Structure formats: C-alpha cells, structure tokens
Amino acid sequence: MIVLGKQLPRRTVLRGIGASVALPFLDAMTPAFAGEGGSAPLRLAFVYVPNGMTMADWTPRGEGADFELSRIQKPLEPFRDRLLVLSGLDQHNGNALGDGPGDHARAAASFLTGAHPRKTAGADIQNGVSVDQAAADVLGTSAPFRSLELGCTESRTVGDCDSGYSCAYTNSLAWRSPTTPLPPEVDPRLAFERLFGGEEADLDPETRARRIRYRRSVLDVVRGRAAELRLELGAADSRKLEEYLEGIREIERRIELAESAPREVRPDLDRPRGIPAEFGDYVRLVFDLQVAAFQADLTRVATTMVAREGSANTYPEIGVPEPHHPMTHHRENPEWVEKVTRINTYHTELFGHFLARLSAVGEGSGSLLDHSIVVYGSGLSDGNRHVHESLPVLLAGRGGGLLPGRHLTCPAGTPLNDLFLTLLQRAGSPATAFGDSRGPLPGVLAG
What is the domain class of 42-186+279-447 according to CATH? Predict the structure, then answer.
C-alpha cells in the first residue's frame, strides 16, 4: 500500500503546557509496526461486574456456532460474531476453603489472580499476581502506561469490607504483587489528566484546578501543532486525526459538565469531582476513556470494575430502586430475581457501548475490537448462594487469533485459570501455569 503524506513514528505526541496527546494509529505510521509483524498490537481488557448473575437468563441456548444469545446477553446481539461465550469455568480459590464467610471479597480477589486471599482486615494482605499484570509484563513494555485500572464505584483499600476480609480484596481486581493491589481510578478527571494532561495528576487539587482553567482544554494547548500536522498528512489520516482529537475533546466536555452539574451529596461522603450523576453516563464515560487510551496506544492492558464486589448500587433508571447486593439474596422470590436480571442486562447493555466504541475505531485493516480480546465476567455465578463454579464469562473481539461467534461449554471442573494461561501465552508470556491451571484451554484461539 502506498501511503501519501508524512511518515510518522508510532510514538508521535502533540505537546503543550501541561498537556500531551499521543496520536492514534495512522496509515503514515505503518512502517513503525514493522517490528510487530506489520500489524496492530494486541490489547487485553478485563471488565468485571459484581454479585453474580441470574444464570438461567445468562447461559445461551445451543452449542458452537449454532447458539442463541440469552436475555442478559441480548444487548450484545450486534457483536454476536465477535463473542465467545464460555460456560463451565470455575474459580476454585474463590471458595471458603476453611475460611468461612467472605465470598464477595474472595470473588473479586481471586477472579483475575486465581489465588486464595489471606483472610485478614489488617495490613498483612496476601493474594496473587493478577493475569492482567502478568500480561502487562509482556505487552506493557511497549506502551507509556504498562496498564490502566479504572472503576465506577468509590472504594477504599483499608478496613474490613466483608466478614473479616480487607477492603483491598473487594475493591481491587488488579494485583501487581501478592501484597500490592492496584485500586481502580474512579474519578474520570484524574484518569483523563493522567492519560492526556502531563503532570496534572501529580499536582495538588487547587493548583490543578487553576491550571485547568488557564489551559481551558487539552486540545487548546496542542491545537496549533495538530493543525500543522494535518497539513503534512494524507486526507484519510488528516480526517482520522481530527475525529480522534474531537473524541478527546468530547470526553473532556462530559467531565466538565459532570464537574459543574449541581447535585446533592451526603455530607459524610467525599465524592470525587468529574463523576456524572447518572450511573449509565458514568460507566460510558469510563469506557470511552479506555477506548481513547487503546486508540492512542497509551496502554495495551486495562481492567474496569463496573462496580465493586458486594455493591449496593441502586438502578432507578431501569425500575430497580433497591440496592443490588441485597436483591441478589432473593431466595427465589420471582420479583427479586426479575430485578437482578434487569441489573445484569443493564450491565451488558453498558458493556455493549464499550464494544461499539472499540468497533467504531479503525486501525490498520480492521478496528480496535478486531485487535483486542476483552474478557467480561463475574467472580460469582449464583449470587444468591455465593457459587464460584460455572462462572459467567465471555470474550469479545478477534485479537490474538480469538475464535468468536460461538458458545463453548467446558468439561465440569475446568479452571478459569486455563483461559487466563491461554491468554498469557498468546500475549507472549513464557508462563507454563497460572493459579490452578491444568493447561491452555482448547478451542479459544486459532493455531
């Protein structure tokens, strides 16, 4: 393919006072990918939803390519050919194993680590390295940020959050080491500044606010350089750059709107600024930040906690004003089961927004979704009984040779960690085991 216009290094960045904006993949950067086999890099994303699922409304009918998406998965119908639904995967170390109550803490702590967390509410926490961080040891070395951790529920990492388990377990998916959780950033403004605002995230709040007012916008700072660069690019790249920069500006506008919107806040709650009042708007904004980070190749590994484990979020916008976690202990009450199913379906609808945005971003010969593997799931199946077997898990995308468009039922007792070992090896890790894995999971990837 002949590329018109200027040839650019992959790490071209537009810089200004207190701001830096990495560029998306452009045709003019194609030579920069020669060291990566001439193709776009693999991205891995892990999206977690809490408190389990209504499994009867989660599990698809049919096997292989001849399957029908379930009620909860129906919002993902536009991406059916890019979904791989996996049934029958267990996370054994989420079980009590003699430690008594605390299934919600163990669900979150074990989901990506495959480890059984030490039961403690003190500083002597002990878990395992999570799969995202093991993948970041390989994929993260080629990006400015080795990984990105985002969340949509305020959280803390100290104190007792579940029957003697530290809040570090319920509120963190990613673990850099067995004693180092990576709590998600839940303030979109801070996440935005970290990705696009240079040193802003390290400043004190008053100085940061003053500089933001002075700067007005990340794109105001780099606008002149962007205009110059567009003149040097081919028409397609110029259009792609303009769309990308406008997308960043739209994210910033939404954060600014959330910061300025009047709202009632409990006096005892220190709520971060930049969080939309509506939960759905909040989650979509966080997903859009993740897409922008992938698009600019700022990171290749990300985790998102839609809500922390044991979350008592309410969802009046879908007719569920009751808190989520108590509703999952429905004791088969049909009305409560229905409300839990609505919440589960709403979460997949929001996840569908993430897939749509990834699919809409062109990259090379495909899209960001084509070059990604996105894992979606929960550390509990039946939230009513706190079951850690046959977990609700699906994969989306086509990256790394993923074989989507199917429903795959695994043999009883198959560890979820077999899947994670498979993804690690495809990412280029030399790992031969992960948690209680027995070996790579067949039928997931080509080759």
Answer: alpha beta
